[in-house]
Amino acid sequence: MFEGVSIPFLIWELQLEVGEGGSDASTQAELSMRRILTQENVSEFVKKCCCPILMLAGSGPWLTVLGGVFTDNLIVQRLTDMMWIGHSTTQDEPRVYRLARVLLSLRNNLHRLRDYYAEINNSKHIPTFDVSRPHPRNYPYPTSFLDSKSGKTLRFKYVQALENNAKCVTYKAEITDSQGTGAPKDIVVKFVSRYGKTVHEFLAQQNHAPCLRYFGLLDGQSSTKALDHPAPELPSHALPLCSMNMVVMDYVTTHDKPWPQDAREQISKVLDKLHAGGYVFGDLRSPNVLFDQSNEGKFIDFDWSGSDQCTYYPLNLSQSIKWADGAGDLLPILPEHDRQMLENLPFEE
Questions:
Q1: What is the phi-psi region of residue 234: left when phi exceeds 0, alpha when psi lies from -120 to 50, beta otherwise?
Q2: Fewest Cβ atoms nearer than 10 Å: which of 7, 124, 207, 333?
Q3: How much is the pLDDT for 86?
């Protein structure tokens, strides 16, 4: 309760058995969150922030933890699997230990949520919500990073998402205090669980990619080293098991299409350098290549990039895209795949 305004930190939805009443407990928790956030008594919080709420859903001996936020849409994700909380015949200790750790983490984060809402309630610096303008509630919480070029911590504000898609994780932003750092005003901020930092830096040094200013944890201070993994013995070992990271790079103002007549030749020369350096790009499609105002080509998406022989396609490749022959879930990305994807690009000759 904050000055007469009440908002829940945790929503419970418990059923005696799976499917009781013809409904799913986790879905009911999501609907409860939706109902709560449409009530008038929480409207002040809805206008100020994304209203993060934790949810605990249980059906019989099964329990799961979920988290939700409200931006321009309600977003709810599972934070755990369905955990068995009943008694087994033997070997209960590891499972009970994991369950205890989950519940302890849940309790600790409820305290953090209380502090978060107290700060939101007392803040005088949150702009008034206006659907026609960018608002902090619609964007991720990181707003600063340690600039690798100047060594200074730079703050930024989000301007817009760079894709008209609910799954977008790439944003245009403005640095608010770049004076004396050499940093541009406009940057791109992206959130990834996999990234070819070494490849990005390799091409940026040759002016074939935007300057990379930060790659690391979401605190904006902890830089993450690029890891060169050995070739996995099994395809399943190719799955990246990394935490979410933040990428910050310079924003590049593009040249109006059509692309230059030598576009294919430019990209081919970049691939020559890339492959000679022992790297592969991986996702060579038109959204991932741009031409600046000098008509110089630049690669901008390095999620799948890495060392040749050690880099693999992700799970669930889109079936609507024409991939190179030999491309597939968890299969190795080869230099010849980059070449074939280049031939598929829709350039006007």
A1: beta
A2: 124
A3: 84
Per the document, the length of the chain is 349
For residue 259, what pLDDT band results from cuts at 50, 70 and 90?
confident
Residues 6+ positions from 48 with CB-CB distance below 8 Å: 120, 123, 126, 129, 137
Please state whether the peptide bond connecting residue 142 to the residue before it is cis, i.e. omega within 30 degrees of 0. Answer: no
List the one residue out of 66, 67, 141, 65 whose CA is nearest residue 102: 65
How many CB atoms sit inside 10 A of residue 58's CB?
Answer: 20
Residue 47 vs residue 199, higher pLDDT: 199
Task: Let me know if 189 is exposed, middle or buried by CB neighbors in 10 A (0-12, 13-18, 19+).
Answer: buried
d(CA 12, CA 4): 22
> Which residue is it, tokens 């020369």?
269
Q: Considering only CA atoms, which of 8, 143, 139, 133 is closest in space to residue 71?
A: 139
pLDDT given at position 17: 81
Residue type, 91: Q
* Strand ranges in 229-307 using DSSP code E only, listed in sequence order: 245-250, 279-280, 289-291, 297-299, 306-307
Tally DSSP H helices, then E strands, for the chain. 6, 15
Q: Where are the domains of the chain?
A: 10-122, 139-344
Contact 150, 94 (CB under 8 A): no
Residue 223 DSSP label: B
| pLDDT given at position 177 | 83
CB of 60 within 8 A of CB of 43? no
Average pLDDT over the chain reads 89
Distance of CA 177 to the CA centre of its chain: 24
What number is the average pLDDT over the span 172-182?
84
pLDDT at 234 over 70: no
3-state secondary structure of 224: coil
CB–CB of 178/145 below 8 Å?
A: no
Give me the mean pLDDT over the 255-275 stretch: 92
Under 8 Å between Cβ of 290 and 305 = no
Cβ atoms of 175 and 183 closer than 8 Å: yes
pLDDT of residue 224: 65
Q: Which 8-state DSSP code applies to residue 292?
A: B
Residue identified by tokens 């939805």 is 13
